[in-house]
Amino acid sequence: MEPPAPPPRLAVTALFGAGLLLAVALAARAPLDFVRWADELVARDRSWFVTAGPLFLAFCTLLATARWLLVYVCSFREHLRQRTAPPADGPLPSVSILVPAFNEGPNIDRAMLSLLTLDYPHYEVVFVDDGSTDDTLQRVRRYAGGTAPKVLVHSKPNGGKWSALNLAFQHSTGELVLCVDTDSHLDRRALRILVGRLADPQLTAVTGQVRVRNRDRLLTRLQALEYLLSNGAIRMAQSWTETVLVVPGPLGLYRRSALEEIYLRYGRPHAARAPGWVAGPYEPDTFAEDFDLSLAVLYSGGRIAYEPRAVAHTRAPEWMFPLLSQRYRWARGSLQVLRKYALRAWRDPSLRRGWVMLWVAAAYLFYLLIQPVLVAMALGFLCTMMLTGVDVTAALVVLGGFQLFTALAVWLYALIHGEQRRLLLLVPLYEVYQAIPVNLGWAIGIVDELRGCRMRW
Question: d(Cα 436, Cα 427) in Å, to the nearest integer?
Fold first, then answer.
């Protein structure tokens, strides 16, 4: 099975050029419109508080468009670099695949079949059941043993995903370590492609494209679009500087030596603290162990790249409450990791890497601080203008321009990633999806984290 052919160069270049011109036009036009609206409100003798709103929106819009321009240009340059990169040659190192699981009985067979049929000559699968209360352990024991590949099965009292990964790491032997989730399955060539990318001796880790596989509901299709933009825009842009901030749980390949170095540098003996806790490179003090480990690698001088041809298919939440719970966990975990590494960088100036700090600001600070305020104020301001008789035609034109830019970006990244172009049909609903369930989950998570509310795994 050969990897998919690269997308047509002319189509990709044309879409990028059209999106770039539109983004520049929006960056120049939208802030000026907000300033003009502020002047109109002043002329109507509105209070300073009301007229300050459009000026603040002008500033936020300028930041948002500048961020998108940075991401858009960097992601396109990374695509060009990957397109012209020579194929990797040389010997294929041994790989250990770490598989943590808790109550994943229904997903075991599909996950194990995916792992046992990978197109790679020598690897092992190290499965750890983290105190499941269903039939996870019984199901996976049917796959134990073998030689090509060898499957090792271990069980332990429940301690959290991080501790299960640490136990799997302790029992692994490969030169490279692949971390996966049991609710995901890999394309047959995914491991070979990741290993080929890691043939670059300058790289420490590489992650692949994560796709939503269950697309039978509107909510999951919107998440598929979200994943496409996260992969295509954010991770591909960060890959151009080899500073991908998050190696996601479903698909991440590390050098074993890097994980050992992380444990020696930051690890602490957690095993005695609670039953089921196991010491290793993954730490227990955040709810985002993948983000935590990725930043530890980057702050230690490592380099992380993104390889879109290696694909993992994951299962997304199908109902609103599980989605809110997921985003709640992501928000709290992200805040915990950012606080943790801000303190480390404050104490040790050598950890302050420019591109890492820039991407943290462009990705997380934007989503945590700017985007929710921008969306809420834009909607409120638009309603205020309509109720007070202010002409909103220009505002609607700007909003339409942003929708068109999002559509061009989705089309571009769908071509690059071999994704379904019918995701374009969801663009009109995407901002509503981002504004309500996504921002709501993040907002609740942020408030609870600031309040110090207790959270269980």
Answer: 15
Backbone region of residue 346 per phi and psi (left: phi > 0; alpha: psi in -120 to 50; beta: other values)? alpha
Q: Which long-range contacts (CB under 8 A, 24 or more apart) does 81-86 make?
A: 81/240, 82/307, 82/308, 83/6, 83/9
Are 251 and 294 in contact by the 8 Å Cβ rule? The answer is: no
Q: At what angle do helices 393-417 and 9-43 cross, to 10 degrees?
A: 160
Task: Report the C-alpha gap between 97 and 253 in whole angstroms.
Answer: 9
Are the CB atoms for 31 and 66 separated by under 8 Å?
Answer: no
DSSP state for residue 284 in the 8-state scheme = S
Q: What is the pLDDT of residues 227-249, one digit of tens each?
A: 999 888 899 999 999 999 999 99
- Cβ contacts of 4 within 8 Å, gap of 6 or more: 309, 418
Is the peptide bond between 149 and the residue preceding it cis, with omega within 30 degrees of 0?
Answer: yes
- Between 371 and 271, name the one with better pLDDT: 371
Most confident range (mean pLDDT) of 41-45, 96-100, 286-290, 452-456 is 96-100
